[in-house]
Write a structure and sequence with these properties.
The chain has about 130 residues and is mainly beta. The strands form two sheets. Strands 2, 4, 5, 6, 9, 10 and 11 form a seven-stranded mixed β-sheet that branches. A four-stranded antiparallel β-sheet has the order 1-3-8-7, with no helix packed on it. The chain is globular.
Length: about 130
């Protein structure tokens, strides 16, 4: 059974950092582009960052560029999202997702992804 599990969310003060993890079971992440998305209450799910399966090409939404870093550790079958300089507007449920078709690039669109995790809550507040 293919499964993605996010972890690492929590409550952090503005300016703080968190590292989210996306661990896969039942399949090998090496062959999948992985995306991170977030959804705040009353808003649509939006793409935050993604990383391709080949060459590690990355994408960042303008709102997180320079603050968030995506990386993958294929040996651990895990993708990470390092989030620094967090702002209250980063508060959302964060999801990771896997795209089985793209290899050399990745997509920031929800519709491009085939498998989804259950999400982890990130709250940025003083």
């Amino acid at each position: 059974q293919l499964q993605l599990v996010e972890s690492g969310g929590g409550l952090v003060q503005p300016g703080g950092s968190l590292r989210l993890s996306c661990a896969a079971s039942g399949f090998t992440l090496d062959y999948y582009a992985i995306g991170w998305f977030r959804q705040a209450p009353g808003k649509e799910r939006e793409g935050v960052s993604c990383i391709s399966s080949i060459d590690g090409n990355t994408y960042y939404a303008d709102s997180v560029k320079g603050r968030f870093t995506i990386s993958r550790d294929n040996a651990k079958n895990t993708v990470y999202l390092q989030m620094d300089s967090l702002k209250p507007e980063d508060t959302a449920v964060y999801y990771c997702a896997a795209d089985q078709y793209r290899r050399y690039y990745c997509s920031g669109y929800v519709s491009s992804y085939d498998y989804w995790g259950q999400g982890t809550q990130v709250t940025v507040s003083s």
